[in-house]
Each structure stands twice: as C-alpha cells, then as structure tokens.
Amino acid sequence: MWEASKAEASGGLPMLARYKVWANDLLYAAVARLPAHELIAPRPIVFGSMLRTLNHVYAMDRVWQAHLEGRPHGLTTRNPDDAPPLTEEWFESADLYHGDKLIRRGRPKKVAPKEPVNIRLDPNVLAHFRATGRGWQSRINAILRKAAGL
Questions:
Q1: What does the DSSP assignment read for 31-73?
Q2: Does residue 61 lie within any of the structural domains?
Q3: Same-domain status, 48 and 81
Q4: Count of CB atoms within 10 A of residue 55's CB?
Q5: Biggest alpha carbon distance in the chain?
Q6: Residue 32: CB partners within 8 Å, gap ≥ 6?
Q7: 98: number of CA atoms within 13 Å, CB side?
Q8: Is 109 a member of any domain?
Q9: For 55-84, what is each residue's pLDDT tens digit?
Q10: Which residue range forms the structural domain that includes residue 18?
Q11: Mind listing the pLDDT tens digit for each residue in 117-127?
C-alpha cells in the first residue's frame, strides 16, 4: 500500500488537494445545472450514466484518502452503491451565488505562490528544458528544490 512521506505531504499533496476542490467545484456546478433525468439517463460510457460516473469519482476519492491515511479502503468494486445521495441541499450548495448572480469559484489560491525572478542560464541548458515542452519551468524548479534539499 502506498503511503505519503512527510516531504510529499508538505509539498505537493496540499496543492493537489486544492486542485481537486477546484475541479470538483466546476464539475458539481455543471452537474447542478442539468435536469435530474439527464444524470440517470443511460449513456454509452464506462459506468452507464453520469450519476454512476460521479459515484465512481466519489469512490476513488475514498480510496485515495485511505491510501494517504495508510489504512485499507475496504472497497471491493470501482463503483459501490453507497455514495451520498444528490439531495436538493447538495444542488443548492453546488454553485456560489451573490444575490441572483452566479459567481465562478476559480482556481484555489496557492499557500506559497512562486515568485517571478530573472536568472541567467546557459543557452544549451535553457534549450534542453524548453525542448521538454509545457511545464519546463516547473521542472527546473523541482530540480532546484531537490538540489537544495527541500
């Protein structure tokens, strides 16, 4: 079973948790705008309907939580029947309103946002990282963190 180390728990996991909240907010806000019959309508997708797919997302969140806590998750299927019901209260809380105006929640704020800096690098070093594609600056940051022992 996989368990998070202290370094992982203090570094990437909080950011991933904030991202998960942001993604869930968008997903549930979109679902809340659908008529109920659309959620249960049969569809040619892996779990057969949007509601069963949401149930799978919920179940896998429970699996990850158990892994992070270092305990067995206890599930025997990828789509158990014990997901919480989508009640009227749930639908009412899915969107954030200011009066009658729907406010988009947006991406969560980072605890320690990165600071823009100017740094001089050898042209071949820069070319190497840029050639790795999108996210090359984050990869440089990760390598610097590792070299600094952070």
A1: HHTS-HHHHHS--SSTTSSHHHHHHHHHHHHHHHHHHHHTS--
A2: yes
A3: yes
A4: 20
A5: 59
A6: 91, 94, 95
A7: 3
A8: yes
A9: 888 888 888 888 888 899 888 887 777 766
A10: 6-113
A11: 888 999 999 99
